[in-house]
Amino acid sequence: MADFQFTLHPITAHPIFWAILFGLVALWALLRFLIIPIQRKRRILQSVAYCPSLLLPVLPKDKDVAIFSPSRRLKFFGYRVNIQQLTCSCSRFRRLRGFYPQNDIRRLCRHLRKELIATNLFNEFDELTRALILFRLRDSCYIREMVLNSEAIFGFHPRTSIVRVYTFRKNSDDPPQGPFTGPVDKFTYHLRQEIWIYGTPPPNCEAILTLIAEIMTACKAKYPKPQRLSTMREELLEPIPVHPDSNEALQIREKRRKATQTTTPLR
Ligand SMILES: [Zn+2]
Fold it and tell me: With contact defined as beta carbons under 8 Å apart, do 141 and 52 qualify?
């Protein structure tokens, strides 16, 4: 049988090697478990001032129990969920969603959402709230407003161009100004391109657009000044419109071409 001997690289015999390795691990742990979570929590708490949201109705006290919610990926593994307190033991909740105020709809992680939908109480929520939860909560800010005679929920972030509108579809015999009695649907508007993406616009879309402009102006005014990107980088972030041969698309492509010719790396 061959005589096999395991030997370490000579550098590992040096105490400085272990000191540097230990220092790097300690630095990584400090960033990962202390500094980044504190900063994230601070950002979310600050965002309460400029990001409005919706509150869920408080569930009865008998729901204040821990439920086991199985993990999607790992067999025999799961999370402790409490749908009355809106808490979950998953990492996304601990890192992010759990910092939102009590009963804030943004606390709903995948597991809380799933367990809430599974209860009979979910059907007692109003139709718009139910639809918003079923479509998943992807936005940082939510506002609920009347648009003419129908209600709508707007989901957005003050710094991005996407606004999601959850509202009722129009049935054929509904009056032109509403109230509309069709099912609630999600409509997505792109602010910069000024188009409704993924399908038809919602009913009363002119009034909805006026309201979107008002909401975004008010929220952007309160938003803390972000670190400015260089002009060249901003141009790279500008999306190309859907019609690739339009004048606007050509101009954006030309700006992008110039931006990529700078000496600073852009990615
Ligand atoms: Zn969770």
Answer: yes
C-alpha of residue 92 to centroid of ligand 1, in Å? 6
Q: Where are the alpha helices (DSSP H) in 75-184?
A: 91-95, 110-117, 127-134
Among 92-96, 167-171, 240-244, 245-249, name the one with the lowest average pLDDT. Answer: 240-244
**Residue 178: CB atoms within 10 Å:** 19
- Centre of ligand 1 to C-alpha 67, Å, is 11
Q: How far is the CA of 7 from the centre of ligand 1 (A)?
A: 45
How many CA atoms lie within 13 Å of 72's alpha carbon, on the beta-carbon side?
4
Q: What separation in Å is there between the alpha carbon of 205 and the centre of ligand 1?
A: 35
Q: How many Å lie between the centroid of ligand 1 and the Cα of residue 163?
A: 25
What is the whole-number distance in angstroms between the Cα of residue 159 and the centre of ligand 1?
26
Q: What is the pLDDT of residues 200-220, one digit of tens each?
A: 899 988 999 999 999 988 888
Span from the CA of 4 to the centroid of ligand 1 (angstroms): 48
pLDDT band, very low/low/confident/very high, at 239 (cuts 50, 70, 90):
low
Question: Is residue 4 helix, strand or coil?
Answer: coil
Question: CA angle, corner 144, sides to 242 and 198, nearest 5?
Answer: 20
User: pLDDT by residue (tens digit) across 13-50?
Assistant: 788 888 999 999 999 999 888 888 888 888 888 888 78
